[in-house]
Amino acid sequence: MKLYAISDMHGQLDGLDPKGADLVLIAGDFARLERIDFIGVCNQVDWVQRKFCAWCAAYPKTQFRLIPGNHDLFAQESQQLAQIKWPANVKLLIDAADEVDGLRLYGTPWVPHINGVWAFEASRDGHALLDAFDAIPSGIDILLTHTPPRIRHQKVDVSIDTNSPHYGSVELAEAITRARPRYVLCGHIHSGDHNPLVIEHPDGGATTIRNVSRLDEDYRIAYEPFVVEL
Description:
Blueprint: E1 2-6, E2 23-27, H1 38-57, E3 63-67, H2 78-81, E4 90-92, E5 96-100, E6 103-108, H3 127-134, E7 142-145, H4 170-179, E8 183-186, E9 197-200, E10 206-211, E11 226-229
Parallel strand pairs: 1-2, 2-3, 3-4, 6-7, 7-8, 8-10
Antiparallel strand pairs: 1-11, 5-6, 9-10
C-alpha cells in the first residue's frame, strides 16, 4: 500500500498530487481560515465543501483519512460539521478508529493549551489530553495526531525556524509508549524536525514518528509530502 501523508496545508493545495497513492493521510489544519469568528467558520465550511472535497473527489481510486487541527474550527461545531457532504472516499476521524485494506488507523485532533480560542485545544489542567490519548488503542498501524509528542532531546515539536520551546504533548508521548503504533504522523509545529524519529520499545518493536507539515512558520510551502509503501 502506498501512503501519502501531509499536514498543515492551511488551504494551500497547490502542488499536491497524490495520484497513484492508495491512501492519503492528513494530520490536521488542512482548511483555509481567514478570520476567527462565526463568519470565518462559515467561510471555512464553504471552502471545505467547494475546494477540499472537490480535490479529494478528483482522486476516486484513492482513500482519504484525515483529522482536524486547531485551525479547523468548523470540525468542533456539530452544526457546521454536519453541513459537509464528504465524498465517498473521504472520512474524517475525530477520536475514532478505522481500517483501510487491513491497515489499522486511529485519529485524534487534540493539542495542548494555546490561548483558549482554537479548536480541540485542551484546558490548562491537561485532563482533556489525558482522556483523549488514553483512548488510543493498542495494536494500530498508524496514529494520526495533530500535536507532536514531546520527547526529551528531540525536536519534532520545536520550531527550528524560530528556536521555539517544546510545544508537544508529554501525555501523547506516554500514550505512544503504551499503544506502540508502527507510525505516528503529526504536524501543528510547522518547522519541527521532519526527519523520522524512531522510538525503540523496551520489549521489542518500534514506532516511527514523522512531522508531515507542509508549510513553514510564515505559511509558505516548505516541505514535500511524506510518501511510504507499507
